[in-house]
């Protein structure tokens, strides 16, 4: 149930939105809502914590620079044309450690396939190989889905490729630029990382129990101080598109593309997905080095196997089947 404070903030936001060219004075707001100036400043603080960017200038007042979009279940489901993904629960969290961990916990308590967890901010966002996925408030789309596929554990890398394809196609829908998929999990635009995914598999005996597939898509530029930390230079959708991007539309596009490929894999096996992934990647035929658990393996990529492994032939003719690794 919305509190009295929520109602004031909603009205305050509307007011600021009507006057983005100028400033709205704190005094006017305090008079309008019959609250103290201190209360006005508190409400502005809460709105900022929700991801709205509000400038405050002494003797002028407040100005809305960027309105954050909420990713609540009813907003995400409005007009969402999927049958499963996002229709069986969208768990929206303003802030969470990691959406993957949250989704894992839900999966262990029987959350159905297609359950979605999305957050405005992750305080412990996880990347591959134990890296951190910087997830500041409102900068990206941080989303995880619960899957219960009928596949063998050694076929699970296919889910990483599927997530890659869904993210690349969603990006294309929003900005009209087709990204490149870099094995195993990066999505790039002109060599810069726009998205990455982390797929985590949970075994039940020797079968796949469930999978949590999480993707992070950079929507707004990361604060500069976080960039030097990264292996591949990042870019953002708003940066490449030169316009503001709706995270709600991006999430909807992603879930639609995800469902499309997931259902196709169920119906027709991995072949159509692999064909699509190969259209989106530029690694096949390239000579490169892949770092696998501290070892650098050099060779030419001959193909991706039917279950999603990278096939790398070294000069001596040895063929490596790589489950995971980092292309250097
Ligand atoms: C990588 O490129 O290293 C993978 C990044 C995956 C980040 C996403 S954001 C949503 C989900 N929750 C996490 O903690 N990680 C994934």
Task: Put the structure in a nutshell.
With 328 residues, the chain is of the alpha+beta class.
Helix-strand layout with pairing:
Blueprint: H1 4-18, H2 26-33, H3 37-49, E1 53-57, E2 61-66, H4 73-77, E3 90-96, H5 99-108, E4 116-122, E5 140-147, H6 157-175, E6 180-182, E7 186-189, E8 192-204, E9 207-218, H7 237-241, H8 247-268, H9 271-280, E10 287-292, E11 295-304, E12 310-313, E13 319-322, E14 326-327
Parallel strand pairs: 3-4
Antiparallel strand pairs: 1-2, 4-5, 5-9, 6-7, 7-8, 8-9, 10-11, 10-14, 11-12, 12-13
Helix pairs in contact: 1-3, 2-3, 6-8, 6-9
The structure holds biotin.
Please, could you describe this protein's structure?
By secondary structure, the chain is α+β, with helices and mostly antiparallel strands. About 35% of the residues lie in helices and about 30% in strands. It has a 7-stranded mixed β-sheet, sandwiched between helices. Strands 13-12-11-10-14 form a 5-stranded antiparallel β-sheet, with no helix packed on it. Strand 8 and strand 9 form a beta hairpin. Helix 6 (about 155-175) packs across helix 8. The termini are far apart. Bound molecules: biotin. Biotin (BTN) binds near residues 126 and 133.
